[in-house]
Amino acid sequence: MDETALRIMQLAAQGFCCSQIMIKLSLDDMGEENISLVRAMAGLCEGSGTGDLCGVASGAACVLALYSAKGSAEEQALDCAPLLLAQFMDWFKGSATSWGGIRCDDIIAFNGGRKPEVCGNIMVRARETLLGILAEHNIDPSLPKEQAGAR
Q: Along the 151 residues of the chain, how does pLDDT read in single tens digits?
C-alpha cells in the first residue's frame, strides 16, 4: 500500500467523504489547513446527496480549480483552467466503465454495495491522474495558486 492509499484510508476512517478527501490531500500537499473549505466540500459527498456525479470527480474538479481558477476580483484564472478540467473529466469518463459509471449510485450498484476499497481505489487513481495533469501544465501541487503565480 502506498502513502496516498494509506492517507486516504486514514481520512476515510476519520469520517471524511471522497470529495473532502480529495481536497484534503491537496491541502496537505500545500501544507495548509482550511476547515471551511473541507466542510464545504461535504456538499459534494455521495453525488451531492442525490447519487449523481461521483464525489471523487466533483472533488477533483474543485482541486483543479483550487490551483487554476479565479478567486478574487483582482486575480485571473490560468489560461489552462478549462483544459485541466476537460482532461480530468475525459480520463474519469473513460475509466468509469471499470468501476460502473460516473454516478455515485451507479458505482455502488455495479460493485454490489458501498465498499471502501472501491472508492479508495478510484481516489488513488484520480489522485495520480490529477498530479499528472498538474505536472503536464507545470503547476506545482505544493504551492497555492497565489505563490505559484509569483514565481
A: 689 999 999 999 999 999 999 999 999 999 999 999 999 999 999 888 888 899 999 999 999 999 999 999 999 999 999 999 999 999 999 999 998 999 999 998 887 777 777 888 999 999 999 999 999 999 999 998 888 754 3
**pTM exceeds 0.90, yes or no:** yes
CA atoms within 13 A on the CB side of 118: 19
CA dihedral sign, ordered 136, 96, 142, 41: positive
Using an 8 Å Cβ cutoff, are 123 and 18 in contact?
yes
Separation between Cα atoms, residue 114 and residue 119, nearest integer Å: 8
| Among candidate residues 99, 120, 107, 118, the one with its CA nearest the CA of residue 12 | 120
Domain ranges of the chain: 3-140
User: Using an 8 Å Cβ cutoff, are 68 and 60 in contact?
Assistant: no
The span from the CA of 9 to the CA of 21, in Å, is 10
CA proximity to 130, closest of 70, 89, 97, 80: 89
